[in-house]
């Protein structure tokens, strides 16, 4: 599932990127962020975040390591067990995996909610429209009628019947403060972040150290595979997960190249 073939090929000019280039995936990702900025979806600072992610992905070998694959299966089990699962979308996520997030929401019964660090009404609307163009029926986050407690910033704005009420939230490329505040609300937090030392994966119940472009389609594949599993099987998957071991495995891969 670590193949970029899984990424929907709907971005203009992608054909200009030579597919036989040894770092095709990274070039494609960069290109999507650039186009996200041009379309008013992604904040300019999204390019910095992308650069940080890209450096860690290079060190991880630009592949889904076994511990990340396991975390992605555990995340799928959590989402299937949840009463009110929500997938949080920011400008980078919308540019990189819009259709893939819609697929994951469908496979797990989760809601999609736009939640931005650099919040403006224009970007919220542009991202909601972009998700609807990729098949989303209902997109939360526009109303933003509730707040995450103890977080003094625009990013605290959430929907009362969305992230605020969620029991399980997927927060990709998240900043550490908000991840901590959501954890303090008692939510089961699934973080996708290429840097295992970032505060957000450090506080997450399920840290997924993988590129979102590979992680999300793989989570969907696991969710479809587990769709017929009974509750006790899903609970067993969730309970045997060792978050510390997952973080350690990613760090070892980055530091030594070993799996
Ligand atoms: N395509 C991607 N897939 C997964 N993670 C990514 C991707 N692009 C960037 N990232 C990660 O997303 C994070 C975005 O930065 P952010 O500002 O939200 O966190 P941070 O300040 O680096 O860390 P902290 O969690 O400690 O606040 C970075 O850790 C970066 O490695
Ligand atoms: C750029 C971004 C990764 C996302 O920003 P937004 O789309 O405004 O939520 C931000 O959190 C940052 O690290 O600077
Ligand atoms: N994500 C914006 C800056 C931070 O990491 O808190």
What does this molecule look like?
By secondary structure, this protein is of the alpha/beta class. It has two domains: 9-60, no CATH class; 66-256, Phosphopantoate/pantothenate synthetase (Rossmann fold, 3-Layer(aba) Sandwich), CATH 3.40.50. The protein is built from eleven helices and eight strands. Helix 8 (199-203) links the parallel strand 7 and strand 8. Helix 3 crosses helix 9. The longest helix is centred in the first third of the chain and has 16 residues, at 66-81. It is globular, with a radius of gyration of 17 Å. Ligand 2JD is lined by residues 43, 45-46, 49, 90-92, 116-118, 173, 175.
**CATH class identity of the largest domain:** Alpha Beta
Order of adjacent strands in the largest pleated sheet: 3-2-1-6-7-8
The number of helical segments is 11
Number of domains: 2
Helix content, binned percent? 40-55%
CATH superfamily of the largest domain: Phosphopantoate/pantothenate synthetase
Termini separation: 18 Å
Could you say what the CATH architecture of the largest domain is?
3-Layer(aba) Sandwich
- CATH topology of the largest domain, by name, is Rossmann fold
Mean pLDDT: 92
Number of strands: 8
Identify the overall geometry. Answer: globular
Structural class: alpha/beta
Strand content: 5-15%
Biggest beta sheet attributes: 6 strands, parallel
Q: Radius of gyration in whole Å, from Cα?
A: 17 Å
